[in-house]
Amino acid sequence: MINGFYDAAGGMVTQFNRLNVISNNLANVNTPGFKQDDVIIGEYERIFSTKRDILPLQNNTKEAAKFLNRNLNKVPIIVEEYTNYSIGNLQKTSNPLDIALKQKNSFFVIEFNGQKLTRAGNFSLDANGYLVTKDGYKVLDTNNNPIQIPLNATKIVIDNDANIYADNEKIATLKIVSIDNLNTLQKVGNTMWKFNPNRAKITTKNTTLQGFLEKSNVNPIKEMTQLIQTNRLVEEYQKVMTTFMDDLNKDAIEKLANVRA
C-alpha cells in the first residue's frame, strides 16, 4: 500500500519540475531572444526496458533488473528537456543598435567565459564604445575581436550582411554563425548558449535586420493553460498522498488492532 504513496510522490515531483520550466517561460515572455523550453514526460518502466540491454552491466545484472518493483515502474519522470528555436515576433524599434536575425539557426557570437551564442540583439555601447549585450558582454566580429564604434559617430548603419558602418566608414562585420544541429547547443542562463566551434559555420550573407528586435517566442496563453493543468495535477497527487497516509493507513491500523491473537 505504501508503494502507492511513492508513486504519487514521484508524479508530484515530476510536475513540480515541469512547473519550474513553465514559470521560467512566463517570466521571460518579454525577454528579447528568449526561446521557450519544454519537457517530455514518460514512464520509468518503458524507458528502462529500452535502455537496459545497452547498459554496461553484466548479463546477470540485466536479468536481475527485470524483477524491479513493478509498483514503482509506472512513476512518470521527465525524459527530456528541450528548447523551441522557432523565431519570435519581430518588433520594429528604429533603434540602430537593435538587430534581429532572419534565420532560426543563426546566432550572434559574444564574449563570456570564452565564446557564447545569443539571439538577443538589443545591443548598446559601453563607456569605451564597445558593442555590448544588455548584460555588458562584448559582441565579436568575424576576426573574434570585440567590436568598437566611435562614440562621436552620428550615423550607425548595419546592412543585411552584418557589416557595421559608422558615418559611412566600415568598422567591422558581426560574427554570425549558423548551427546545423540545434540539439548540440547547451543553454546558459536565459538568452545564451554554449556551442562547439567545430559545428558552427560563419554565415553573414543576408542574415541581419537593423532597427528590429526579436521578441520571445513564448506563447503566454499556452503557457498559462499548461500552468493551470500542471497545478491541478499537483493537487490531485497531493490528494492521493493524503488518502494513503491519513485514510488507508488509519484503516489498516484499526483493522490490525482488532485482529485477535
List the defining traits of the structure above.
single chain, seven-stranded antiparallel sheet, elongated, 4 helices, 261 residues, alpha+beta
Describe the structure.
- This protein has 261 residues and is α+β, with helices and mostly antiparallel strands.
- It folds into 2 domains: 2-85 and 219-257, no CATH class; 90-214, no CATH class.
- It is 30% helix and 26% strand.
- It contains 4 helices and 18 strands.
- The protein has helices spanning 2-27, 44-51, 59-65, 220-257, and strands at 37-43, 76-83, 90-92, 99-101, 106-111, 115-118, 124-125, 131-132, 138-139, 156-158, 163-166, 169-173, 176-179, 186-188, 192-194, 200-202, 208-210, 212-214.
- Strands 5, 6, 9, 13, 14, 15 and 16 form a 7-stranded antiparallel β-sheet that branches. It has a 3-stranded antiparallel β-sheet with strand order 10-11-12, with no helix packed on it. A two-stranded antiparallel ribbon has the order 1-2.
- A hairpin with a 2-residue loop joins strand 11 (163-166) and strand 12 (169-173).
- Helix 1 runs antiparallel to helix 4 (220-257).
- The radius of gyration is 26 Å and the shape is elongated.
- It starts with a helix and ends with a helix.
Number of strands: 18
Radius of gyration: 26 Å
DSSP summary: helix tally: 4
Counted up, domains total 2
- Spatial gap, N to C terminus: 23 Å
* Low-confidence residue ranges: none
Compile the SSE list and pairings.
Blueprint: H1 2-27, E1 37-43, H2 44-51, H3 59-65, E2 76-83, E3 90-92, E4 99-101, E5 106-111, E6 115-118, E7 124-125, E8 131-132, E9 138-139, E10 156-158, E11 163-166, E12 169-173, E13 176-179, E14 186-188, E15 192-194, E16 200-202, E17 208-210, E18 212-214, H4 220-257
Antiparallel strand pairs: 1-2, 3-18, 4-17, 5-6, 5-9, 5-13, 6-15, 7-8, 10-11, 11-12, 13-16, 14-15
